[in-house]
Amino acid sequence: MAKKTTSALQENKGVSKTETTNAKSIGSLKKKRKAVLSVDSLVTDLLNKNTSSLSRAITLIESKNPKHLEQATQVIKACLPHANKSIRIGITGVPGVGKSTFIEAFGKHLTAHDKRVAVLAIDPSSTITKGSILGDKTRMEALVKDKNAYIRPSASGNALGGVARKTRESIILCEAAGFDVIIIETVGVGQSETTVHSMVDFFLLLKLAGAGDELQGIKRGIIEMADAIAINKSDGDNLKRAKLAKVEFNRALHLYPEKVSGWLPKVTTCSALQNDGIDTIWELILDYVDLTTKNGFFNKKRAEQNKFWLIQTIESQLKSNFFNLDSIKKELQKQLDLIEQNKTTPFAAADYLLSLK
Amino acid sequence: MAKKTTSALQENKGVSKTETTNAKSIGSLKKKRKAVLSVDSLVTDLLNKNTSSLSRAITLIESKNPKHLEQATQVIKACLPHANKSIRIGITGVPGVGKSTFIEAFGKHLTAHDKRVAVLAIDPSSTITKGSILGDKTRMEALVKDKNAYIRPSASGNALGGVARKTRESIILCEAAGFDVIIIETVGVGQSETTVHSMVDFFLLLKLAGAGDELQGIKRGIIEMADAIAINKSDGDNLKRAKLAKVEFNRALHLYPEKVSGWLPKVTTCSALQNDGIDTIWELILDYVDLTTKNGFFNKKRAEQNKFWLIQTIESQLKSNFFNLDSIKKELQKQLDLIEQNKTTPFAAADYLLSLK
Q1: The domain at B83-301 falls in which architecture?
Q2: ipTM reported for the complex, 2 dp
Q3: CB-closest option in A84, A342, A351 to B84
Q4: pLDDT (average), residues B295-302
Q5: How far apart are CA A34 and CA A104, in angstroms?
């Protein structure tokens, strides 16, 4: 039966490339039955830690085919009771900071300690540079081969909101598939850090010991989000500079108000290449989990994140529904022009546009 | 005629305290005619720099009576072609920094240089501490008596959005009434600074020379918005500390990325009490206006602010319309509970709630 349902799923997957059948048409009942069967077996396999099934389930989430999305919803629903049990870690840093090397070293350290590790990536630009997906995988050669590790390339999408949803749902599936640690990697540009920060328990910022511009080059918002800063490539000639940078970052962190988690953000140095300082970072994360579990912040933060994503999704949908209305598209620029000509105010224009809905 | 229409307006003003008449009822035509007449004469008087008319017009804006709001819309529309000609300055600082004394000294400096100055205040908390309105006026004794100055106490309202709208509309009226400089004062707490920043050309932050905690005590977002920081009460024993603080703030400002205006934020010291350094601040603002007028940023910023308020008003209205629906109020907490119990995801819950609309 497993084989039959797998092929059914593959058949469904093929549909996206041809044509979507109307679910209400004749014959849909049979197809529906097949879909249900395949979802059941997919979930069973996934819960049995089968990573191929996990990949297929994530592909359903990422599909644009309405039938697949319906199946995805069923899979997620079935996985939900088994989710929520991992430590979710966000890792960010500018290109060149050595994120892939770090994640490889960090991931290997975890699997060596009997942890199963999943790596997801958020990269809103990945729709353009699709090549980076392969790049990521080849840059994490050892981790790719590790049977206790799972690497999933960037979820792509036009809007960060869509990417966020796919990633959040992928986290649920990875957790149901028994992964203990979920790493969400993001490139150190734009809005993606805020997005990742809103879906992880611990946020790690990778930095380099720079040429004296440690403070200037930092996006302050990102520093503020970090639960730890790791100064990577702290080896060889870099060692002294890295130690100086550590002092400077420590001083910078003191300027920020205390975190509600009760956690004091830490600064540490490491060399992913030489596998140095990686253990310290993991211990630090465990300390964080320990502290925040005891003081209740860990679960409180997850509940807040859930509420954030609920409200966020509703608000962005309300906005996009409104601004995509033909009537609004037509009138918005006209109203802006009238404001520019001192013929109306932004508020009167808003009232008028809202009345068109 | 002027007298007759003025009394008509006063009659309308009285309506808010009793009962709003249905505009479609018998006799409404007569009333409508009266209202139109009174609006015309109000606008004429306002354009003739009559500050009593300005006050009455702002009262219309602030009224909760639909009839008054209709009149307010007419007044604003008539004033719009005469607006946009002032320099709008936002002034903020924590309580105790000497805002009132500063604005009094600054305002007197401007009127001495043949400028007409209007002072508006944003204070979202003023609904609670209504007494502060009188306080403000008595603390600016000399300015209150100055015929070229106009001081309007805080617009109050439950939501900052409402306060913002009233203040933005009041700016238009003040400009139409021939005021050259509009000062928007805000208390140094909460979200009001961001609101004020979005409606002024120049943002001035007042600070005190503190006890070594110059950097820690600052809300970073506010520093980032400032076009200038003035360290007030720089007199007597305070002088040395103020100069030290100036050095420290200058260093802090260098850590921020360059402003798109092309303007380098300035740090200066002043003593409003001793009328010292006030002229420097005004010259500095004129330098800013000069620079940004030449490089086009001045008008660009105003256009962006208009667009911001248009979009902002629409979005907040869409949200409040949605979340105030009875069906949503009833279901929102249920969905949050289901998320908490791992029975749904924030995204599925959002889809469900949106489907109820």
Answers
A1: 3-Layer(aba) Sandwich (3.40)
A2: 0.76
A3: A342
A4: 95
A5: 39
